[in-house]
Amino acid sequence: MRTPFVAGNWKMFTSADTARKLAAAIVAGLGNEMRVRVAVAPPFPYLALVGGVLQGSLVGLAGQNLYPEKEGAFTGEVSPTMLLDVGCRYVILGHSERRHKLDESDSFINRKVKAGLAAGLRVIFCVGETLEQREANHTEAILERQISQGLIDVSTSTDLPERLVIAYEPVWAIGTGHNATPDQAQQAHEFIRSRLAELFGQATAAQLVLQYGGSVKPDNAASLVKQPDVDGALVGGASLNADQFLAIVRAAVA
Ligand code: PGA
Q1: CA of residue 72 to ligand 1 center, whole Å
Q2: Is 100 annotated in the active site?
Q3: Residue 177: left if φ>0, alpha if ψ -120 to 50, beta else—which one?
Q4: What sign does the dihedral 251-29-37-70 (CA atoms) show?
Q5: What is the pLDDT of residue 1?
Q6: Rounded distance, CA 10 to CA 14, Å?
Q7: How far is the CA of 99 from the centre of ligand 1 (A)?
Q8: 169 catalytic residue (yes or no)
């Protein structure tokens, strides 16, 4: 009942030329496959360019971040309206690199989530614990905090599952080659869904798409997305290679 969703987070990689080629290869490889939703998140400077390549295809365009104001004197920042204007349907928020390398707080992320949703973007909201937190048995407490604080004042609505996606991305698995085991992913996703049920009600929580992210590769994607509460993947490194990304997309529909 939940359509799997695979998104590629290109982070601060690609050039105009490689971004165009990567997008074109993904469009060609996906074709008319509608059993899975697919999006890519190029760096800001290439959004319009990649958006042009994606035009008329089933691949959605995503921003990697936004600033939670419509416009204003915020040098270097990008508003939700601007993302929509260049063709974005999605935005990734709360990514661990922004939490940990750029010091974004739960309350700032919450402002971004609300601004993105209010503008009409579909928000991919990321949560996840560090290795230290996992080893100290704090995983659920951290997820609980990130979810409850990050989603303050996000109200339930029948179309929420169309507008909000949660990505569970354990920090220790991102870019390390050490993915969570399918069991670890399922456990965290189950916990996240139970928290979402408390916030939004059982019926809405059952429809919300939960992606797993952290060293997803063609050879581990199938076992991860096979888990009952894992509805797709947020892919970093492997999304920079069209063949690998498409293999992960195919694993999500198999
Ligand atoms: P990775 O990144 O697939 O390279 O681990 C995942 C992410 O940061 O979204």
Answers
A1: 32
A2: no
A3: left
A4: positive
A5: 81
A6: 7
A7: 14
A8: yes
Query: Tokens 């928000």 — which residue?
Result: 123
Tell whether pTM > 0.85.
yes
CA torsion 179-185-189-192 (nearest 10°) is -70
Q: Each residue of 186-214: pLDDT tens digit?
A: 999 999 999 999 999 999 999 999 999 99
Which of 95, 97, 104, 129 is catalytic? The answer is 95
pLDDT at 79 over 90: yes
Q: Which residues contact 75 (CB under 8 A, 6 or more apart)?
A: none
Mean of the per-residue pLDDT values for the chain? 97
Q: What are the φ/ψ torsions at residue 55 (nearest 5 degrees)?
A: -50, 130
Residues with CB under 6 A from ligand 1: 9, 169, 174-175, 213-216, 234-238
Query: In terms of residues, how long is the chain?
Result: 254
Q: What is the pLDDT of residue 254?
A: 81
Query: 233 C-alpha vs ligand 1 centroid, how far in Å?
Result: 9
Answer yes or no: are the C-beta atoms of 109 and 99 closer than 8 Å: yes
Residue 48 CB burial class (10 angstroms; 0-12, 13-18, ≥19): middle
